[in-house]
Amino acid sequence: MRILLSILFVVLGSYGVLGEKLYTCTCVPGLLKAKLGLSAPKAFMKHGITPRFMPVPPKDKLNCAFMTANVELGNFIDPLRTIDMKYIAYPHGKSDVKYTLFIVDFDGKQGAPPNAHLIGLYVNVPNSENLLVGGDIAVPYIKPVATLESGIHRVAALLYEQNDHIDADDMELMKLIKTRVIQLEPMVKKYNLKPEPIAGAFYTSELNLCINKPLKSDL
Fold it and tell me: pTM value?
């Protein structure tokens, strides 16, 4: 299935539609890196995540990477590179604290409710070299691949400190496995998390058809 998906994205994301005048617009050799130009608070505000979806931005940055791309603070990553998450880590984490890790896709449509699409949710997570392992999976991770012509996606990993143990089999959390739609602030309050995220990172992504529209001289 992964091979079929990869082929589909190459056809749609890199070569357009049969019958059109096409050109190659995607290239994925090597490891994609990005220069870090903004602090976490400024990046989350610049890209419209704060205050619309969360009133206070993270103070610190998470270290995140896919197999062929590093996640920084708003860098663009081609959808072809977002298939396999490698790790999420917080170097400044505490050994005596348990964390909740949200992985969310923020809806950028104007006028829409401040909902986030939940890609994965991990609770009771101990600090480690990879926060994706070791905790309890409340909502299983799904690959955050942008759908065709759905606009710019802002996919974020957000880390919160817990005040109490969270039951990963809580009925409300189990419902999220199907719905995947949340509002961060009410959820943070419901599960008694520290109100401000301690760290985060995010990238932007978009999948469009690659169609070379004719110039006037070609008509």
Answer: 0.78
